[in-house]
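Q: I have 123 residues here and want to know how they pack in 3D. Can you give me a structure?
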Amino acid sequence: MKKIALIAHDNMKNDLVEFTKKHVDFFKKYPLVATGTTGKRIAEATGLEIHRYQSGPIGGDQQIGADIAMNEMEAVFFFRDPLTAQPHEPDISALIRLADVHKIPIATNQSTAELLVTALKLK
């Protein structure tokens, strides 16, 4: 079974934690990966088993990108902070580009995440 990735910028971590709590029954059906702190926070709040990669700014985004490139990813939930400049923006752009190239759905906010969960449940 392919993986689902969970990523959130600092100002969006609480939103992603709450989202995963709301949909814990959905997420427990998939192997989960996440960037470091995000994965820790979600695991503590939900009890979900999550393989934690490096923090996003030090390579975690690229590790998830590698999973995408290797055709190991089902979807990405990346709650981005659109109002704060990110020092690792090139890594974020590369991750989104890989998702586009490999036709991997990526939800970047709660509304698109709700749609993605609904779509994946129909699969």
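Q: Anything worth noting?
A: Residues 27 and 40 are 15 Å apart (CA to CA). The two ends are 13 Å apart (CA to CA).
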